[in-house]
From TrEMBL:
<dbReference type="InterPro" id="IPR011051">
    <property type="entry name" value="RmlC_Cupin_sf"/>
</dbReference>
<feature type="domain" description="Cupin type-2">
    <location>
        <begin position="63"/>
        <end position="111"/>
    </location>
</feature>
<feature type="region of interest" description="Disordered">
    <location>
        <begin position="1"/>
        <end position="27"/>
    </location>
</feature>
<dbReference type="InterPro" id="IPR013096">
    <property type="entry name" value="Cupin_2"/>
</dbReference>
<feature type="compositionally biased region" description="Basic and acidic residues">
    <location>
        <begin position="7"/>
        <end position="25"/>
    </location>
</feature>
<dbReference type="Pfam" id="PF07883">
    <property type="entry name" value="Cupin_2"/>
</dbReference>
<dbReference type="InterPro" id="IPR014710">
    <property type="entry name" value="RmlC-like_jellyroll"/>
</dbReference>
<protein>
    <submittedName>
        <fullName>Cupin domain-containing protein</fullName>
    </submittedName>
</protein>
Length: 123
């Protein structure tokens, strides 16, 4: 094994589309685990565009990420909320909904929560 590894999201190991064409998740795998780059299109909301895929009441992913561009509102099941935008590092525990704020796609990288994200129930 070499000490350097390089992958490009434009040639991702896997791409998972969201419902209604509202974005996609590109996933690259490494010996340290999967890393994802998601593009959430304007109008995207987890409860509308991923919930039908995941089959859970709220997002159960544990996110550790960084927002490249755009804005997203995250609301926990208990009502706590935060808006994230360009340059923000974020962590989000399981049990939340989220949606794009504004008319610009939100692009985010995630080192923890995208490995099992938007995987159809039963897969």
């Amino acid at each position: 094994m070499t000490g350097i590894a390089r992958k490009n999201f434009d040639s991702a190991d896997e791409t998972r589309p969201f419902e209604d064409g509202k974005g996609k998740l590109d996933l690259v795998n490494s010996d340290r685990g999967p890393v994802g780059r998601a593009v959430f299109e304007p109008g995207w909301q987890w409860s509308k565009h991923v919930k039908p895929i995941a089959g859970t009441d709220s997002c159960q992913a544990d996110h550790v990420g960084y927002v490249v561009s755009g804005r997203m509102k995250i609301v926990m099941d208990d009502g706590a909320s935060e808006e994230v935008g360009p340059g923000d590092f974020f962590t989000v525990t399981p049990g939340h909904d989220a949606w794009v704020v504004g008319d610009e796609p939100c692009v985010a990288l995630d080192w923890n929560g995208f490995g099992g994200y938007a995987v159809p129930t039963g897969s």
